[in-house]
């Protein structure tokens, strides 16, 4: 958000609509309406601000959890009752969610609110802004934020109502998924001529022509699943538009991890080359919808590697709070990280942990009972010191029914942890400054490779093998591959995009979502989409529930 305000020039309105970190020097006499606002060029820019703030809302937390916890990538069990959260995490893992699941409900509300916020901005700009190229660009950007939102709605909830008129509260029936796909496609194509081709600090965090092509590529890669009709060549053409722009390149091996640091952004190594579209985050900013925060370290860092009590651990990351540390990956997903020469292995915390010198063990001092809540020996309160050792397997030691691993050090040190979005030691809260990419250039490379393997026509002298080896040359010092299969690309996508919110989308496209991992065995195919939540029916009586729910 700080990057968005200071670098992109998108100050956010402070009116009754939302709270923000930026105030305008104008008297606020009523809610934002075409009659009272906007009046000049700076206010036209501000009109677009709420849509970007809304987009930031659930992106790094609830939306990510829904995309990741429902796959083999991530598990978030309970710890002595903590983190059970009404069974929403358990349901995501077991594929047993219903229409009252917290993530299902919250993300529907978030996404539909973004649509309404975009519709409002589009209405105000259309009615008030003078005609010209700048107006067309702002409108195209707002339509692209809305198109991205409808993509997420279509991907997660299937048949969804389409609303494009601000102030239209009449009940809208579900639109068939194939028609939603066509609507998004037409919106993108209509916006393309008016979007900026610039890729620098002035357009960072805003939709550009290249973001539009990246979204089209993602649409076409999944078109067979969404609509029943394959669009491999269309996917390749959209990827080629980004490749031929010359605006992007793959981050070097030295900068792969750097591009996710708290200092990332439009001028930072790695991210300035690879980020096609990213959500800016600012540890000091707030928002009006969802958490509007990046709390990655809160969930991913083991408790004893953040702020700790004297003698209880080692603040490896120098963060000013005790992390919750409930999230981990599963052995099935971590098995993809099988190349010892791959820089992407370094995004994980695994096995015995050491202080920054790489030699001194990180030790934790507790009691026998604190280490193992099931200790039955003679000295439960005797001091016990051990080296922090993260083990791969998750065991529901306290309660299978409550998805509970226990509330002792054995529980808190199980599961490998992801620190791709590296903890932010500069933040005075649990929030972080790491921006989160939506589309990266490496996705363009792998989407094109996959589309070729699935039957598309190779272009630009690039084969699926040459594209994958192009990426791997910047990720591993191992020898190039001699051949590539779809399963190879699936595994490569797991390595490349871990913790970036694409695992569910990939698993469904590859027919893996009905598989078994962790404690999950449910193979119901209708769970490829989520139910429309109960609360949505109170607002829109024309809705029809998705099959199976």
Descriptive account of the structure:
The protein has 549 residues and is mainly alpha-helical. The protein has one domain (10-292, 433-539): Serine Threonine Protein Phosphatase 5, Tetratricopeptide repeat, CATH 1.25.40.390. 37% of the residues lie in helices and 5% in strands. The protein contains 20 helices and 8 strands.
In terms of DSSP E residues, the strand content is 5-15%
CATH architecture assignment name: Alpha Horseshoe
- The secondary-structure element order is HHHHHHHHHHHEHHEEEHEEHEEHHHHH
Number of helices: 20
Give the fraction of residues assigned to helices.
25-40%
Detail the poorly predicted runs.
1-30
Fill in the CATH topology.
Serine Threonine Protein Phosphatase 5, Tetratricopeptide repeat
* Shape by Cα distribution: globular
Major beta-sheet overview: 2 strands, antiparallel
Which CATH class? Mainly Alpha
What is the radius of gyration? 24 Å
- Number of spatially distinct domains: 1
The average pLDDT score comes to 92
Widest beta sheet: strand line-up:
1-8
Instruction: Provide the structure class.
Output: mainly alpha
Q: Roughly how many Å apart are the termini?
A: 38 Å
Number of strands: 8
Pfam families: SusD-like_3, SusD_RagB
Domain SusD-like N-terminal: 86-221
Main location: membrane
Family: Belongs to the SusD family.
């Amino acid at each position: 958000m700080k990057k968005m305000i200071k670098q992109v020039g998108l100050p956010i309105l402070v009116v009754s609509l939302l709270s923000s970190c930026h105030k305008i020097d104008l008297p606020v006499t009523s809610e934002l309406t075409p009659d009272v606002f906007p009046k000049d060029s700076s206010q036209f820019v501000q009109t677009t601000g709420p849509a970007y703030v809304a987009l930031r809302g659930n992106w790094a937390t609830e939306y990510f959890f829904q995309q990741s916890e429902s796959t083999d990538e991530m598990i978030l069990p309970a710890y002595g009752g903590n983190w059970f959260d009404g069974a929403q995490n358990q349901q995501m893992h077991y594929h047993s969610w219903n229409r009252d699941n917290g993530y299902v409900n919250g993300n529907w509300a978030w996404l539909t609110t973004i649509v309404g916020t975009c519709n409002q901005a589009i209405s105000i700009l259309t009615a008030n802004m003078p005609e010209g190229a700048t107006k067309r660009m702002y409108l195209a950007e707002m339509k692209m934020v809305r198109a991205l939102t409808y993509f997420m709605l279509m991907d997660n909830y299937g048949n969804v109502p389409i609303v494009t008129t601000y102030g239209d509260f009449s009940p809208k029936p579900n639109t068939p998924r194939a028609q939603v796909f066509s609507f998004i496609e037409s919106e993108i194509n209509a916006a393309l001529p008016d979007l900026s081709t610039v890729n620098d600090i002035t357009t960072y965090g805003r939709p550009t022509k290249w973001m539009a092509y990246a979204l089209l590529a993602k649409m076409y890669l999944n078109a067979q699943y969404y609509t029943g009709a394959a669009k491999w060549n269309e996917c390749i053409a959209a990827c080629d538009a980004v490749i031929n722009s010359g605006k992007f390149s793959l981050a070097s091996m030295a900068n792969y991890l750097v591009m996710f640091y708290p200092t990332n952004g439009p001028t930072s190594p790695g991210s300035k080359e690879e980020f096609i579209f990213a959500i800016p985050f600012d540890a000091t900013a707030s928002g009006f919808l969802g958490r509007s925060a990046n709390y990655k370290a809160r969930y991913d860092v083991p408790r004893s590697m953040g702020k700790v009590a004297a003698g209880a651990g080692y603040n490896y990351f120098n963060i000013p709070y005790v992390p919750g540390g409930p999230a981990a990956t599963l052995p099935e997903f971590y098995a993809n990280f099988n190349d010892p020469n791959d820089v992407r292995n370094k995004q994980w915390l695994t096995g015995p942990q050491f202080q920054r010198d790489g030699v001194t063990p990180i030790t934790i001092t507790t009691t026998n009972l604190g280490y193992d809540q099931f200790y039955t020996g003679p000295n439960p309160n005797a001091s016990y010191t051990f080296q922090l050792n993260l083990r791969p397997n998750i065991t529901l030691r306290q309660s299978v029914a409550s998805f509970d691993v226990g509330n002792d050090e054995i529980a808190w040190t199980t599961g490998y942890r992801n620190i791709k979005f590296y903890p932010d030691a500069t933040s005075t809260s649990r929030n972080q400054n790491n921006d989160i990419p939506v589309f990266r250039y490496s996705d363009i490379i792998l989407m094109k490779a996959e589309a070729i393997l699935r039957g598309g026509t190779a272009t630009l002298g690039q084969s699926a093998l040459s594209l994958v080896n192009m990426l791997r040359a910047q990720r591993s010092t191992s020898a190039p591959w001699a051949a590539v299969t779809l399963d190879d690309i699936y595994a490569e996508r797991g390595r490349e995009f871990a913790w970036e919110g694409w695992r569910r989308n990939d698993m469904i496209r590859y027919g893996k979502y009905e598989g078994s991992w962790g404690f999950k065995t449910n193979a119901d195919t209708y769970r490829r989409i989520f139910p429309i939540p109960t609360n949505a029916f109170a607002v829109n009586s024309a809705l029809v529930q998705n099959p199976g729910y």
